[in-house]
Amino acid sequence: MESGPDHNSRTALVTGGASGIGRACVRALAAAGAKVHIVDRAGPAAEELADEVDGVAHVVDLADAAFVDALPTEVDVLINNAGLQHVAPLHEFPPDRFDLIQRVMVTAPFLLIRRVVPHMYAREWGRIVNISSVHGLRASAFKAAYVTAKHALEGLSKVAAVEGAPHGVTSNCVSPGYVRTPLVADQIAAQSRAHGVEAEEVVEQVLLDRSPIKRLVEPEDVAATVLWLCGPHTANVTGSSIPVDGGWTAN
Ligand code: NAD
Questions:
Q1: Is 248 domain-assigned?
Q2: Does pLDDT of 31 surpass 60?
Q3: Which of 21, 87, 241 has the most ligand 1 atoms within 8 A of CB, as the residue to mutate?
Q4: Are residues 202 and 153 in the same domain?
Q5: At residue 23, what are phi and psi to the nearest 5 degrees?
Q6: Report field, pTM of the whole predicted structure over 0.85
Q7: Are 131 and 188 within one domain?
Q8: Full domain range(s) for residue 208
Q9: Could you tell me the distance, in angstroms and rounded to a whole number, from the CA of residue 197 to the centre of ligand 1?
Q10: Which of 25, 64, 68, 147 is deepest in the core (most CB within 10 A)?
Q11: Taking 90 as the threshold, does the pLDDT of residue 18 lie above it?
């Protein structure tokens, strides 16, 4: 049996919580009884979701390191989820977009982990879940910044796992394939332009080309894996990366 606070005494923080996978995580954690802090730059959507789940919205830009000072330190469950994509060949990749993606998807998770682990260590219990991607494990053309950031996040997650182990804190990545969210809708349009094919062909022939299961993952599927990592029976699951990818990385 695992010791630690029950769901109702837990506080969770989800970055990028106003949309897609993050929103599904907020709903799943709130339904399990946690008090959820929703961190997003999309103010109206964050406020609306906070009202729905009786949570707290924090409207901040994760690209600006000062954001972290506005957030709580007493967090038991940290979900580093916010992310963005930019699709371009390396020789045309805008350096400012590369830098932005590292700040939001690597530096912000680092700043949040270092902010909340003292509380987790004091309670001798904590769960860090980093929403990585199959692109934390594999590369694809035209995604230099995203693949770089997700590989970095996988490394950061492992360090948090090693350091957190004596304190009852686990850290894992959940690494989805293509999930039905606004981020992917944008990518379908971008890939359509990059590969010169129709949008509907992008899903089957580009996005799911390597995937034995020809179906987009749903945000709720990812959130269920996140919730499992935050529940009982996972005290020994740490430093891992769990693909939720329809077999993409196996193929
Ligand atoms: P989404 O675009 O639906 O949601 C991302 C959220 O992050 C948005 O609410 C956005 O406002 C917020 N955000 C982005 N930049 C921010 C910033 N600078 N400051 C504050 N908030 C910011 O995306 P999603 O598909 O739900 O993706 C969530 C995570 O899952 C990302 O890390 C993404 O890389 C990862 N992921 C997504 C897929 C997929 O297919 N959708 C697959 C693998 C991994």
A1: no
A2: yes
A3: 21
A4: no
A5: -65, -40
A6: yes
A7: no
A8: 180-216
A9: 25
A10: 25
A11: yes
